[in-house]
Amino acid sequence: MRNFVALEEKGSVREFIANDLSNAGLRIDTNKHRNNINNQPSPAITSNPKQQSRVFNVPLHQMDAISIKIDNLELTVPIFLRWCFDCIRRSIKHEGLFRKSGGSQRIKELMVRIEDGPLTPNLSPSNTVFDICSLFKEFLRRLTYPLITYPLQDLLLDCFSMRSLSSDKKVDIYLNILLLLPDEHLHALIYILRFLHEITLNERDNKMNAKNLAICVGPGIMRTAVEGKANLMTEQCATSVSDIVEALIINATKLGYVADSVYERSQMLLEMRQKEAAQNTDESFAIDNGIENGIGGGKINDPANAKKRRSGSVKEFLVHMTNRLRRRSGSNNDSRDQTHVFLDQSGKLSSSHTREHRYHYQQNSISGHCLSSSSSSTTTTKRKSSDDPNGGNSKRGKTKTTEKSSLPDTNRFTSPITAFRRKKKTPGSINDPGFPFKIEHSHLPQLLHFTDEVPLRFTNAVGNTASSVSSSSSSSSTTTPSGSMTTLAASIANNGSIVLGALQPSAMIPSETQSSLSSNAGPAACINKSLDAKKLNLLDSWKWPKSSRKAERKPLVAIHAPMLLTSTVGSLSLAQSPPSPIKPVNGSNQSSCQQMAGTSLLMHSSFGVARRHSDDVASTSLSTTAYRPRRSISSSGGQQQTRHVVCMSNNYSHSLPSNQQQDAS
Amino acid sequence: MASRKKVLLKVIILGDSGVGKTSLMNQFVNRKFSNQYKATIGADFLTKELQIDDRLVTMQIWDTAGQERFQSLGVAFYRGADCCVLVMDVTSPTSFKSLESWKDEFLIQAGPRDPENFPFVVIGNKIDLENRMIQARKAQAWCQEKNNIPYFETSAKEGVNVEKAFETVARNALAREKEIDQQADFPMPIRIPQQEEQPKKDGCSC
């Protein structure tokens, strides 16, 4: 766990968290509350503009603050809060702290004294500790913006109501959600929760356990706004709130830390962006602290920020990146792949094929970007590691661009199929066991069975996975055998290299991440019972490699994994398996490769269709949908896509022989 | 006859948090006292049947949360109450002081008919504790001031006086019920203009 509070660049981390949440079905709806927020100006400002409040009826960030160090967390909290807690701490053994109410008259007096005089007034003998507790609750109630901002409250409640999650998992998610808070709020919240935790340690005397405290303080921390009627609480909601806050109090010491996996991923993205920004000053590419503005501070910021935020999102980033790559490689007229099966405009398969067609296909496939690019970088990794002296002389000549780069292999944007072909044709790698994947033909019909109507099992699968959240903080090491597909999703998504590898130059992927690729993708040995495991059993057709040249094969997991996910393979057992399910197939290297690549693309697109059809259903696999460019969802019609997919599935097997022939020739 | 009718009395228990509202209710209904220290969320009710003189009454006792934040939840249950029990903690002067505001709050939110004579009962709880701060005399005086509200000192923990207090609650509520019933027995008559009955014809009229 990494100290989140101390991070200098929180934006990208928050972005990743938000993204993971979103993929788990927890979407941040900033619009929903924007009106609410704007309609709720600080009472202090509206009622009495001349008198400047200092503590009550003020936004948290406008208060006089003080720096406090707890453990290794450097917190900036309002002076008032520290004074409050210091007072309460002196009587921490009093029964009913925060439960029993203080004298309302004395509380009012104290409030006036704090506003007018010193922020930390001396208490009169008549003041009890309960006065201070009540004062604290009053403080929370009067904050201009609730301590946990409305959109995040929604997220917490959404997460709370997800039945498929274990409570441990939920807590992890809560803690992640809270990291999206604006800094002032996060700091104050950490401080408060830790103090409440401290109170529970004296439960024997003060009788206040986490549950009690949550009931008493929870409504202040989560000032839930029911739409339209602010501050109205239903009983159901009150119960949920107290349950959530209870969990937070119990786990107070974990708040403020971010899982290493999330941090690493975000750093990679950041690094990449910096390089990107350095190289492309011409391209307007607004990377601001998207999430910080858009979500955490979304309430505080004006709606004008909405657009800004979008431009900073990962999805947009990928769209942008992809477009750029396309443009580049488009101008790069050195390479041609003519013998491959791609969809052309009319939805037919064409065997002679130009780059444009290929890109057309990629555009059409909803998640094609992600996969294609991931496999391209994968291949590059392999090339480099095999240190092929002839690489530069290969027919396509593309290696030029590859070798050029300190600049990433992002210059090369190729379909997985192209990538595989290139690999195959590289001298010395014909028998490369790392290359082809073998899929039994008999499995194809099932896998490719997608019509305009989404097969029920797919929608189901999507729904299932959507409801089970894969928390970013629960790294793959925490995955349990009981976990379902999601565990795989989580483990893969947690591993930055799979996803990021899509656009990352291979050189930029830390070697340990690469090596962790295999281990992280591993522990997802699970059976999703809701699926017909037999029918969807893709994995059975995988043959594990016998060769020990792991280094070369590892990156291929990047291709396998999303495939497995999207095809919702029921029983898969990567845990005990070698990093990549690859088997050399002599002679038919290319065809099987195509098959694989084609299938994987297909899986993605069909998955996308499935998802389109079940609108509310959140995304399944983190790796596939997490970084799926938004544009591609909205731009191309679902119907058309579906037809393409179907077409491809029908013709796929027919096209194989011809390819093989071509290869042979 | 009204006395044969089964009567349901709705009783609301109000008071600061931690004064023992839930404990009182549990002691009265289940004759149990739990050492568990647990704040109430929202409101909850228990019922108990009582024999008052010759009448069998069912008391529906609503226990509310004392937390100020849950008061918005509570007010929904105030309506239709037949009696309101105000509870304070004799060891907590604050809880005594807030009786006034609880009473006012109730009358505003419940909006009963004839608020002047609405039956309240005040209970000073936790008399088993030693650090007593509110003397019985003081509380008694306050109650007399407020239209002679009956005052009881109880211990929910030891079950002292609880039964008696709630019996008074039931009696007062019943008395009010009668009054209202009597009013209801003679409502303003509605005059319906009598129409001349048409002479019956043989067969159908069409």
Name a few traits of the molecule:
heterodimer; A: 665 residues; mainly alpha; Phosphatidylinositol 3-kinase, Chain A; two-stranded antiparallel sheet; 31 helices; globular; disordered C terminus; B: 206 residues; alpha/beta; Rossmann fold; 6-stranded mixed sheet; 5 helices; 34% helix; 22% strand; elongated; RhoGAP_dom (chain A); Rho_GTPase_activation_prot (chain A); GTPase activator activity (chain A); ARHGAP11A/B (chain A)
Could you describe the 3D structure shown?
Chain A has helices at 11-23, 30-38, 43-47, 79-90, 104-116, 129-142, 150-160, 167-178, 183-200, 203-206, 210-221, 235-250, 260-279, 290-296, 305-311, 314-331, 355-364, 368-386, 399-404, 416-425, 444-447, 456-467, 485-494, 496-500, 511-521, 550-553, 557-566, 589-613, 622-625, 630-635, 638-664, and strands spanning 2-3, 65-70, 73-78, 257-258, 342-343, 349-350, 525-527, 571-573. In chain A, strand 2 and strand 3 form a beta hairpin. Chain A is mainly α and 665 residues long. Chain A has a domain at 2-33 and 56-263: Phosphatidylinositol 3-kinase, Chain A, CATH 1.10.555.10. With 206 residues, chain B is α/β, with parallel strands linked by helices. Chain B has a single domain (7-184), classed as P-loop containing nucleotide triphosphate hydrolases (Rossmann fold), CATH 3.40.50.300. Chain B is 34% helix and 22% strand. Chain B has a six-stranded mixed β-sheet with strand order 2-3-1-4-5-6, with helices on both faces. The radius of gyration of chain B is 22 Å and the shape is elongated. Chain B starts with 6 loop residues before the first strand and ends in a 21-residue tail after the last helix. The mean pLDDT of chain B is 86. Classes of the chains: A mainly alpha (665), B alpha/beta (206). The interface between A and B is medium-sized, with 30 and 25 residues. Chain B: Residues 180-206 are annotated as: Disordered.
